[in-house]
Amino acid sequence: MSAKLNPHDMFVRGIFKQMDYSKEFLARFLPKPILEIINLQEMRLEDTSFVSEDFKELYSDILFEVPFKTGEKSNIYFLFEHKSNPDYDILLQLLKYQTEIYNKSKGIVPVICLVFYHSEGNWTIPKRFSEKMKLNEKISVFKEYILDFKYLLFDIEKAKIDEWELSTKLKVVLLLLKEVRKKEFDEIRFKEIVNIGREVFLSRDGLDLLKRVILYTYFTTSLERQKVKEILSETLTEERTEEMMTTGERLLLEGKLEGKLEGKLEGKLEGKLEAAMNMFKLDIPENLILKATGFSKSDLFTKDKNGLHLNKQKNNKENRKLAIRTALEMWKNEFDIEAIERVTELNPKWLKRFFKRFSRGSQPE
C-alpha cells in the first residue's frame, strides 16, 4: 500500500494541486446537494505536514479544505485519491487517511473521499464497508454498529468528457488521461488532443500545461520524440515548439527531471549514473532510463531472485551540497515535497523551511 510516484500519479497530482483545475473539476463532479452548501471559491490546499512519519509512506493523495456557504466555523475536507489501477484495499486505505486527519486536525469535521480512477479496466470494488462485508437483510441489524462511510468514484473511462462543459485546459487534461493508456493511442489521437488545446498552449500561461502534457506523453507512451516535435510544429507555432522541445528535452534527456546533476549529462559518466539512480527511485520505466542516459541494460542493471535492481556499486556517496542543488532544481520544476524528499533523502521539514527562505530571496545553504 505504499505510495509509488509513477508518471500517472505525478501528472495528476501536479495538475490538481493547482486550484483552478481542482475547483473546476469539483464543481463539475460533486453531487449537487454538496455543492449547494460549500464555498468552492474559498477552497484551499491543505498543508500535509501533519502526516506522521509512520503514516507518511501511505500518503499519496491531495487534501482540500472547503468552508460552508453559511459561514460556519467548521469546514469540510475533500480527500482526492488517484488510482491508476484497481486497489482492493481502498476502503482501508481511505480509513487510515481519515483517521490521521481526525487525529491531527482541530475537532472532527466531515471528510469526503473522492477516488479518481484512471484505467480501462472496470472498477468493481465496493464503495462502502457494508458492501464489502456483504451484510444481507438477515443480518442488517449490524449496520447500526459498524463504520460505513462511502467514497465518491470518478471513473474516467466511463466519463463522457466530450459532452461536458469544461474549460479547454481541463478538457485536455481529462482527455489525455482517458486516452493515453489505451492500446490504440497513437500520433493521430495525440494530435487531436493538441489541436483541442491549441489556444491554451499558445497563450502566455500555456507553456506550463504543454510542458506537463509532453513530459507525461514521453513517459507513458511509445510516441517518438521526433514525431511529437512534428505534431507540435504542425499544430502550434515553430517558436512555441522550439521553446517546448528545449524545455522538454532538457528535463527529460539531461536527467534534470529526477537528477542529482552538477551540469549537463553529455560526456559526464558520473552525472549519468546519478541521473539513472534517481530515475530508478522514481519508478521511471527501464526503457526511458536507458534512453535518457545512453547506457545499455547490462551497464546499469543486475537481476537476482528479488527482481531487477540498479547496480548499487555504481551509485556515488551521498553529498549534501549535491542533494540540495538537486532539491532546488526539482522545486523550480514544481515537484512535490514527497518526490524531492524521496530523491534527495533530505528531511521534508527542512526542505519546506529551505524553499520558504529561498523564495524570499535568501541564498541556498
Brief account:
This protein is 48% helix and 10% strand.
Question: Which structural class do the helices and strands define?
Answer: alpha/beta
Number of strands: 7
Largest sheet: 5 strands, mixed
Beta strand %: 5-15%
Low-confidence stretches: 49-59, 253-268, 304-309, 312-318
Written as H for each helix and E for each strand, in order along the chain, the element string is HHHEHEEHEHEHHHHHHHHHEEHHH
Keywords:
365 residues, alpha/beta, 5-stranded mixed beta sheet, two-stranded antiparallel ribbon, 18 helices, 7 strands, 10% strand
Structural overview:
- Helix 7 runs antiparallel to helix 8 (187-196), helix 8 runs parallel beside helix 11 and helix 10 (206-220) packs across helix 12 (238-253).
- This protein has helices at 7-16, 19-29, 32-35, 53-56, 90-104, 129-133, 168-179, 187-196, 198-202, 206-220, 225-235, 238-253, 269-281, 286-293, 297-300, 320-332, 337-344, 348-359, and strands spanning 44-45, 62-67, 75-83, 111-117, 152-155, 301-304, 307-310.
- Among the domains are: 7-155, no CATH class; 161-253.
- It has 365 residues and is α/β, with parallel strands linked by helices.
- The strands form 2 sheets. A 5-stranded mixed beta sheet has the order 1-2-3-4-5. The protein has a two-stranded antiparallel ribbon with strand order 6-7.
- The longest helix is centred in the C-terminal third of the chain and has 16 residues, at 238-253.
- It has 18 helices and 7 strands.
